[in-house]
Amino acid sequence: xxxxxxxxxxxxxxxxxxxxxxxxxxxxxxxxxxxxxxxxxxxxxxxxxxxxxxxxxxxxxxxxxxxxxxxxxxxxxxxxxxxxxxxxxxxxxxxxxxxxxxxxxxxxxxxxxxxxxxxxxxxxxxxxxxxxxxxxxxxxxxxxxxxxxxxxxxxxxxxxxxxxxxxxxxxxxxxxxxxxxxxxxxxxxxxxxxxxxxxxxxxxxxxxxxxxxxxxxxxxxxxxxxxxxxxxxxxxxxxxxxxxxxxxxxxxxxxxxxxxxxxxxxxxxxxxxxxxxxxxxxxxxxxxxxxxxxxxxxxxxxxxxxxxxxxxxxxxxxxxxxxxxxxxxxxxxxxxxxxxxxxxxxxxxxxxxxxxxxxxxxxxxxxxxxxxxxxxxxxxxxxxxxxxxxxxxxxxxxxxxxxxxxxxxxxxxxxxxxxxxxxxxxxxxxxxxxxxxxxxxxxxxxxxxxxxxxxxxxxxxxxxxxxxxxxxxxxxxxxxxxxxxxxxxxxxxxxxxxxxxxxxxxxxxxxxxxxxxxxxx
Length: 521
Prior knowledge:
- The protein has a single domain (21-88, 104-203, 214-220, 232-240, 250-503), classed as Amino acid/polyamine transporter I (Up-down Bundle), CATH 1.20.1740.
- It has helices at residues 9-16, 29-40, 45-48, 50-55, 59-63, 65-86, 92-101, 103-140, 152-173, 175-202, 229-240, 242-247, 253-256, 264-292, 297-302, 307-314, 317-351, 358-361, 371-384, 398-425, 440-457, 481-503, and strands at residues 56-57, 217-218.
- It is globular and about 65 Å long.
- By secondary structure, it is mainly alpha-helical.
């Protein structure tokens, strides 16, 4: 039995859910919001996957696609906020599914969530390495471009591994340090994005037209470049929505950091939906500034349709270097936050015995940081990104976009499961202080349908050369997302029925409390 008389309200809530306070609860509500806002990172996603939308749909996939998809994601976030308020624990997504649907639901949700988090971490760090490589070769030390046979993919991967080591070191130093970094990251993203918008509006000698910001493009290779008909509307354009769906993700971090956050039952709920809303508004303004700065769309397409091409065509060398530096620093800050969230999920899932070697990953050091979970998360992220060493034409890493898609599918399907279970429970669901009221009925349905549709699209080939049987087929162009996702599901299913269902019972209590008084509000 445990004496709970001296526990804080947060610790009592955690005890009610079956856990003792092991992590350092030093995060404020703002810090909790800050980590999700930092992981969403409009300075990362809007830059690194801009080309995905430009080539698959064109400006309209950005100008109209962003607010449309962001609205759906906000609904998903609001559904998750209700669950975070009811169950404020680390590894929240998995815990919610276990509580509402039993061990099997928790097992699948936890693994999908963990796979998604590792992939998102890998993609953000790799994106940061890509921008850093461009900065070094173009502006800082051109001689670097001659290294490793002049292969930019190898150069980028070397920088990727270096950045992963640095990000890991930051994470293992102190949980409180990460809270401070996330607070700094918020303001870097706010003022950095605002500064970039101002630069793109004032510095270029020529701008595009407002009408051009809503044009259609099809550089995907599908449908013979048509911008009308079924191919464009139901295949090409939805592929462009990856920009929004990828950028506005990772907001489950607010739930994963619940056990380190004060007043978590309200702070985590607010952190989720506020980070989505503010990122959606800020990201849209930033992307519209990108589009408005484009005076020569054909030149952007020739440059691969990337944000780097947009910036270098619109700005002088000096200003382009400034903008890319602001973005790269933002991506680095996002990377540290991503690894924090991933490691906390690894810690929580291992605490309940679901991960091989769980005793190692569930340990915390004297600073109450799960160091082993941080390190193994970083190592797996590097392994997952190894295919990015190969690319189309020696420079286009299709594997990077596959990692992005894996992250999107893994995270959002993990979100879908507890949302569906909450919907199925109906009015019997016992919510926390933050609830959707009766609105849960339509909101949960919208969330489930949107996630199901998006997940299907991101399993599909992104270029014709990635379609088996195509005359241009090349393995370097294959979207290996289905191989990873479906392969993981098959392995998990075999593992569950062959072994896991006999020993995995869901969340394990780490505190034995005879009676926990209701915490004072």
